[in-house]
Amino acid sequence: MAKIPSAMIAAGGLVGGYGVARWTKKRPLGGVVLAAAGAAAARQWRQRAGGPAAGALTAAYVAAFAGSHPLAKKVGAWPAVFGVAGAVALASWAVADRNG
Questions:
Q1: According to the model, what pLDDT value does residue 86 have?
Q2: Which pLDDT band holds residue 2 (cuts at 50, 70, 90)?
Q3: CA quadruple 7, 8, 13, 15: dihedral positive or negative?
Q4: Exposure winner among 47, 59, 87, 97, fewest CB in 10 A?
Q5: How far from the centroid of its chain's Cα atoms is residue 43's Cα?
Q6: Spatial CA neighbour of 19 closest among 73, 61, 77
Q7: d(Cα 39, Cα 13) in Å, to the nearest integer?
Q8: Which UniProt keywords apply (predicted)?
């Protein structure tokens, strides 16, 4: 059975976490989605690209989440979330998914 690419998991965690938080009006529930997807992506990053790369991609995932907040004040919430999700997905694909 083929694994879901880590790029899709990471992007889905950022978009899904925000969506769940917004639609349920329960930010901690969105955080659960964000954390679960981040953990799943990190496991694949470690398996496919090794510990240092997984650490760097995990840091990028957390930075994207944090960076989406000030970015949202400039471009809007959904554009900010989609932008950072795309950036993390691209980094994940380049480092961990491209060759496998």
A1: 98
A2: low
A3: positive
A4: 59
A5: 13
A6: 77
A7: 10
A8: Membrane, Transmembrane, Transmembrane helix
Residue 37: CB atoms within 10 Å: 22
Do 92 and 38 contact (CB within 8 A), yes or no? no
- Alpha carbon distance 27, 50 (integer Å): 32
Q: Which residue ranges make up each domain of the chain?
A: 6-97
What DSSP string runs through 58-69? HHHHHHHHHHHH
State the average pLDDT for the chain. Answer: 95
| Burial bucket for residue 80 (CB in 10 Å: 0-12, 13-18, 19+) | buried
Contacts 24+ apart (CB under 8 A), 62-67: 62/38, 64/14, 64/88, 65/14, 65/17, 65/34
Residue type, 49: A
Rounded to 5 degrees, φ, ψ at 13 are -65, -40
